[in-house]
């Protein structure tokens, strides 16, 4: 492969054009179906009556579904306002046969992986005796199973640059395999040293694999990127290729960020493999990100997550490139605390990412702090934040000062007033864009990972995080929070001011459709 894989700007523009064209074709399919039914209803009034009757039954049925209340409300309003389009969109979203096929395929893959994961019952029992409230959270996670681990060293990095440097260093130690899974991979300056390491390791016989999301990486690479990597011996797969199919699964993207090295070292955090995450380019001011390194048995869970998504994404008919999972029992590391890597899926009807945050808020006594690039909250999470603040918990949230998506930033700010009036404190990171996904509570509980405080992360994406309890690295997380508070502007008092009628209307409208985006 040539330097930076030899891709040209024109090729990447073609990739962006491919994804844009795919989106347009899907919209045209929806429009064609809607127009057909509308015209049919004009010629045959009984059809229009039938559609309205279906709309009424669906609205009644939606109210009985065990789902997020904001999502239910958005569907009800859309179906009642535009019955034809609303009914069609709802049927596509809920009864798409392709989504059922995807779900069965993923369940079959999971049956081959997760029953083999050691649930570490002895660790759970020890934690249960030590901290019953945290143990209940862990018991929920281990049922998936994402067990708690001890004897695992954890290092926290307050920037993407420092995390990536450590990651490259550990990749040089690989003798068996390197597995990498990222939402966005760019064929750019920061990919060069990583690419060089992978080429050297392939020459040494190391099994190197990269999995990236097609839409997340579509603005950075084209399909030649995958072909070139495979040609070089670096096995490469693309998650959920953007196809002009009328399927709601196209909306479910792989937002995970995972690197696993020989089953000994694992990395995750907020950063992807693109220059903006490392401030090579700065379209939104200073880009703040973070990462975490784990060494020890907890890497087992990260490896299981990668194998799940790799096997799901591998469309080959043979099993040559498929991966099997086996528990690794690496050398024990002298360390304190408990480490629980976990993952969230949008098609299992269990919003694990949101539930973990809600449980932490409920258990918090002194404080609970968050960093998130977006703030698009469900009623459940909004209520949990407000209730914690009203109980006297010091709840703080840091969002960006310079947004990457102005519309979403408008939605983010629309939540400030309610949260501030309940007692939460709101900060905006003035130097630029804060992309960290971070939660810290009471000096002993922390979550580092990929899960934003928004609907896309909590309900639509495949995500991952690491729950930490009483590990030494939590001190570094708190230090990062304190430094970030100092670099941010507190906007709590400003947020308490009631916005004018026009702004309230616009924000309410944006928040109404946000659950479906």
Textual characterization of the structure:
The structure is a single chain. The chain is an alpha/beta fold and 517 residues long. The protein folds into three domains: 8-99, no CATH class; 147-341, Endonuclease, Chain A (2-Layer Sandwich), CATH 3.30.870.10; 352-516, Endonuclease, Chain A (2-Layer Sandwich), CATH 3.30.870. The chain is built from 20 helices and 17 strands. An eight-stranded mixed beta sheet has the order 9-16-15-14-10-11-12-17, sandwiched between helices. Helix 15 crosses helix 20. The two termini are 38 Å apart. Residues 2-15 have low confidence and may be disordered.
Key features of this structure:
single chain, about 525 residues, alpha/beta, Endonuclease, Chain A, seven-stranded mixed beta sheet
| CATH A-level architecture of the largest domain | 2-Layer Sandwich
The proportion of residues forming helix, as a percent range, comes to 40-55%
CA-CA gap between termini: 38 Å
Can you identify the CATH class of the largest domain? Alpha Beta
Counting copies of identical and different chains, the oligomeric state is: single chain
Strand content: 15-25%
């Amino acid at each position: 492969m040539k330097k930076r894989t030899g891709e040209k700007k024109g090729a990447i523009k073609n990739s962006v054009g491919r994804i844009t064209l795919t989106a347009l074709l899907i919209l045209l399919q929806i429009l064609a179906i809607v127009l057909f039914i509308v015209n049919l209803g004009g010629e045959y009034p009984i059809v229009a009556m039938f559609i309205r009757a279906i709309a009424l039954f669906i609205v009644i049925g939606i109210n009985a579904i065990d789902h997020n209340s904001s999502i239910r409300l958005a569907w009800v309003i859309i179906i009642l306002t535009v019955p034809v389009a609303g009914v069609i969109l709802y049927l596509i979203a809920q009864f798409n046969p392709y989504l059922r096929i995807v779900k069965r395929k993923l369940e079959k893959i999971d049956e081959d992986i997760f029953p083999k994961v050691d649930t570490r019952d002895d660790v759970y029992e020890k934690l249960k005796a030590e901290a019953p409230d945290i143990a209940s959270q862990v018991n929920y996670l281990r049922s998936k199973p994402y067990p708690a681990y001890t004897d695992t060293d954890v290092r926290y990095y307050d920037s993407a640059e420092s995390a990536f440097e450590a990651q490259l260093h550990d990749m040089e130690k690989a003798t068996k395999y390197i597995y990498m899974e990222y939402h966005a991979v760019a064929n750019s300056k920061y990919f060069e040293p990583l690419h060089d390491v992978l080429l050297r390791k392939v020459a040494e016989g190391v099994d190197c694999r990269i999995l990236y999301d097609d839409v997340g990486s579509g603005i950075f690479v084209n399909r030649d990127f995958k072909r070139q990597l495979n040609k070089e011996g670096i096995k490469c797969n693309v998650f959920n290729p953007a196809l002009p199919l009328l399927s709601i699964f196209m909306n479910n993207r792989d937002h995970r960020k995972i690197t696993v090295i020989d089953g000994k070292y694992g990395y995750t955090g907020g950063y992807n493999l693109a220059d903006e995450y490392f401030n090579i380019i700065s379209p939104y001011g200073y880009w703040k990100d973070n990462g975490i390194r784990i060494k020890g048995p907890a890497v087992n869970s990260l490896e299981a997550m990668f194998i799940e998504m790799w096997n799901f994404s591998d469309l080959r008919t043979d099993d040559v490139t498929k991966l099997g999972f086996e528990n690794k029992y690496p050398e024990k590391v002298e360390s304190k605390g408990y480490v629980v890597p976990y993952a969230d899926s949008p098609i299992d009807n269990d919003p694990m990412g949101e539930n973990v945050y809600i449980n932490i808020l409920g258990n918090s006594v002194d404080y609970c702090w968050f960093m998130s690039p977006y703030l698009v909250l469900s009623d459940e999470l909004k209520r949990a934040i407000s209730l914690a603040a009203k109980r006297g918990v010091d709840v703080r949230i840091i969002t960006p000062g310079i947004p990457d998506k102005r519309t979403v930033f408008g939605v983010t700010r629309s939540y400030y007033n309610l949260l501030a009036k309940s007692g939460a404190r709101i900060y905006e990171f003035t130097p630029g864009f804060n992309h960290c996904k971070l939660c810290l509570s009471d000096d002993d509980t922390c979550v580092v990972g990929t899960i934003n405080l928004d609907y896309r992360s909590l309900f639509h994406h495949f995500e991952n995080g690491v729950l930490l309890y009483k590990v030494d690295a939590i001190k570094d997380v708190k230090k990062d929070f304190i430094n970030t508070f100092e670099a941010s502007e507190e906007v709590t008092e400003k947020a308490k001011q009631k916005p004018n009628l026009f702004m309230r209307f616009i924000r309410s409208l944006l928040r109404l459709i946000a659950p479906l985006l």
